[in-house]
Structures are given as structure tokens and as C-alpha cells.
Request: fold
Amino acid sequence: MLDIAIPLIAFAMTVVLIGVPDEDSGRAGRDLDALSVILAALTALPLVLRRKAPLVAFLLSTAASAVLFALDYPAGPPVGPTVALFFVALAPSETRARRGLTIAVVAGVFAIHITVYGLANDTFPDGEALLGSILWSGVWLAGERARIRRERIAELEERTHRAEREAQRERRLAAAEERTRIARDLHDSAGHAINVILVHAGAARLHAERDPERAREALGTIEAVARETLHEIDQLVGALRENEDKTQTPIGLAALDGLVQRHRDAGLDVEILVSGVRRPLGPAVDQAAYRILQESLTNALRHGNGGAKVELSYGGDALEIGVTNPSDGEGSAPEGHGVVGMRERAALLGGSVSFESLNGLFRVRARLPFSGEEQA
Reply:
């Protein structure tokens, strides 16, 4: 409706101004007639183009207005060109040079418009030139200010949308990292439990008739491991739920004694050596250290020859972990989700994990910087 209303209002105002004689000049000019109505319509009709082609609308409207003045119709403020000029100033500017060219075109059209008026009235239009320049300058500044405000609002909206997109991307990345972490934890926890349960189930089967007491101990270990693993899996699944209010404390080296005891009960002779000054570890480093030891001992139980040596060294800037066990294999480390998980955990903390199989021994070496807690 507004697109139609503006040209209609401009047309009506132009007709009214033509119908009012210019008493200040002492000349009545031509009366309102069909030609003047047509020309008034031509000054307003181009305004339908003011959004798509504002400069074209301004030129067409100004040309019709100049014809009105040239035919000696009573002069008045050129309503159509003035409205069109506002939308020229309001239009987005691609470059400063193009904006300057537009201003030059407007100034030239204004000069032509005033010249036509002066020739039609056979006088130098000094007053009309002054008033016209004030009017068009004011309209141009109003349009320019509205344009700048619109561009600022558009820029702020774009920044807001960009920030929302970045936040959404960060949330997706965080969710993906969380899923990866949970997958690693689930693999480490379930894989360790299944291996321990398999060993103790085999022991219970072998000792069921000859040594019932040892069989019952093996079954008790199976029950304890299964219960502990179920609890840990329940924590991991709970972390996936929306609106999870409880923050679970991640498992760490405080649970190392229980981990070692389970492997000893399964038949793995585990020796622990600790050097350096013990210090509190951040949750990420603490959990990573535990999971690396868990996976290393699980591999020693599955692929080793009955023993494992665990070394923990608290250095000035990092925790050094070493797990050595006898092995029949030579060559590279076994590849699997557990080994990949160890590498990922260390990498997230800015540390490293290396594997070596030499002279019947398989070694896992890990370095976890204490400052890695800030990166995780």
C-alpha cells in the first residue's frame, strides 16, 4: 500500500501547488489544465521505481518537473523530485567514487532545474536557488543519515547472526568432542571389565571342582568388576542426557590400587614404582593417566606373559608414565581403539604416547604435561 500511496500523495500535492498562483512573483502563470495534470502525474509516477532504481526515478521526475516550469505553470516546491532525491540518498552506496558521482549528477540536475525556471520566468532565480538548495540538501542529509543507520543496523544483525553461527558451530564441535571422549571412556571401561571377567571366569571354571574357594573368589571379583563397570557406564550415559544436573567426578589415579588389584587377582604380577614429589592433578590429566594405565594393563593381561611393571614419575612440568611387560611379539604396537584412545587422550593435553616392542619386552611410554589441563 505504501508503494502506491507515496506516488498518489506526491501527485495530489503537485496538482494543488499548480492550482495556487505564485502571487509573490506578480505573475499568475498558466491555469491548472489537462496538460498540467498529466505533467504532475509524470512527476509522481516514477516514484514507483524509487526502491529498485532511485536515480532513474529522480531523473524522470525532475525532467517532468522542469517541463512544468518551462511551460510557465505556477512554481512550487518540486514534490516528486524531492521525494525521489530522498530515496537516492537512502540507496546503499557500493563505493565512495560511485557515491560522489551520484552527488555530482544530483547537483547538475538541480542546476538545470533552476536554469529552466529562470528562463521560463525571464529572471535570475537567486531566491529559488537558495531555497531549493537548502531543501534538497536537507532532504539528501536526511536520506544519508537514514541510510547509515540502516547499514549499521544491518551490520549489527549480521554480527549477531555470525556470532550465533559461531556459537552453534562451537556447540557442535563441543558435542562431537564430548561424544568422542565418552566413546573412549566406554571402550576403556567396558574393554577392561570384559577382559578381567573373561580371565576370572576361566579361573572359576578351572577351579570349580579342585579349589572351590578360589572359584568363589574369582566369581566375587567378576561380580565386583561388573557392578563397578555398570556404575561407570551409567555415569557415561547420564552425561549424554539433556539437562543433566549432576556433575560426575571423573575416575583418576586415586582408583589405581583397585585397578592393580583386579589385574593381580586375574593373574598379572603388577609392580608399581613411583618417583618424584606427588602433586594434585587436574581432572583431565588425572583421568587420562588412569585410562592409559588401564588400557596398558589390559593389553599386558591379554597379550603379555604374566607380569607388568608400572612407573609413575612426577616431574617438574609433566607426569611420565611407563608400563613394561614381557611379550612374545616383536614389532609395532597393537592397533585398535584402545591404542588410538591413548594417543588421543595424550594429544588433547599436549602430551604424547609411544610404543616399543624389543627384546621380548613391550613398553608403553606416556608424557602428560601438567599445563595440558588448560588445553583440555
Remarks:
- Confidence is low (pLDDT under 50) at residues 243-247.
